[in-house]
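User: Second chain of the day. Same drill as before.
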Amino acid sequence: MIVLGDGRYKETALSLIKEKGLESHFNFLGSFPPTEMPKFFSHADALLVSLKKDKIFSLTIPAKIQSYLACGKPIIASIDGEGAKIVNDAKCGVTSPAEDSLALSKKIKELMALDKSKRSEMGNNGRAYYEKEFDRNNLLEKLEAY
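Assistant: Same format as last time:
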């Protein structure tokens, strides 16, 4: 698994990975500028978004979700509220409650057990949802209609 970014729990994750003897399964590459992220996304089988379990976070839509939808890749979402609703409504991935690591691992296994065509369909669903709900031109047209 390739992990990008330097979140505040990176050191904790690295310690747990070492403790469990899983170093050969993870590759932490660090942070990159936003302009370089699509290059990484295009090679991914799925993209992960997670948020802390908190009422305020359940009311927000992480910017990553829009980026992930636009990339046309299945989304693994460990989030509550609006973000999870988008992934479910778009039929573009799997969701588990925020901070529920057992449910998250189960959902990842479910996603990876699907055949490639089903995962591809999820990615296409996400791209279509992005174009319908978040594409700039569509948003401007909706705004003008109001």
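The first strand starts at residue 2 and ends at 4.

User: Great, on to the next one.
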